Amino acid sequence: PPTAPPAGTPCPQRCRRAGTLQSNFCSSDFVLTGTVKSVSRGAPQEPGWAVVSVLSLYKAGGLGIPQPTKGATLRLQLPCRLCPVLKKGSSYVLMGRLEEDGGALLPPDAFVVPYRPQQQQVLGNLSKRPCRGNP
After folding, report:
1. Distance, CA of 29 to chain centre
2. How many structural domains is the chain composed of?
3. Which residues pair with 40 in a beta bridge?
4. Which of 42, 55, 89, 90 is buried most deeply by CB count within 10 Å?
5. Does residue 64 fall inside a structural domain?
């Protein structure tokens, strides 16, 4: 028999992100900008995946990204098929979580916004400041 989805609904009623670059930076495990190479949405009970080519990494949080980071590809698990919305060929600021096995995860409430060059400076400044309450 098919197994029930894990506790908690994989998708919220409405996909919407909360907060700002600043308010989400410290609460996210990793922060990067990247261009979506491919998005695969599997069967309804299966997580989807996005493959992203990294432009800049601002917070690694244990992500095993090879150096140099620019051009490295990263697989991000998408537990919700509907959000965050990612379009192939588009670039985004991606703030996500790390699973226990070190896999990168973009939960439905992940802070994901289309990337604009002027965000680079903001993200660079944020990455230089220590996050309170976190190592």
Report:
1. 9
2. 1
3. 49
4. 55
5. yes
Q: Which two tokens stand for residue 32?
A: 């990067």
Global pTM value: 0.85
11 within a domain of the structure (yes/no): no
Q: What angle do CA 119, 121, 125 make, to 5 degrees?
A: 115
Domain hosting 59: range is 30-122
Query: What are the tens digits of pLDDT across the range 16-74?
Result: 778 999 999 999 999 999 999 999 977 777 788 999 999 999 998 888 776 677 888 99
CATH code of the domain containing 104: 2.40.50.120
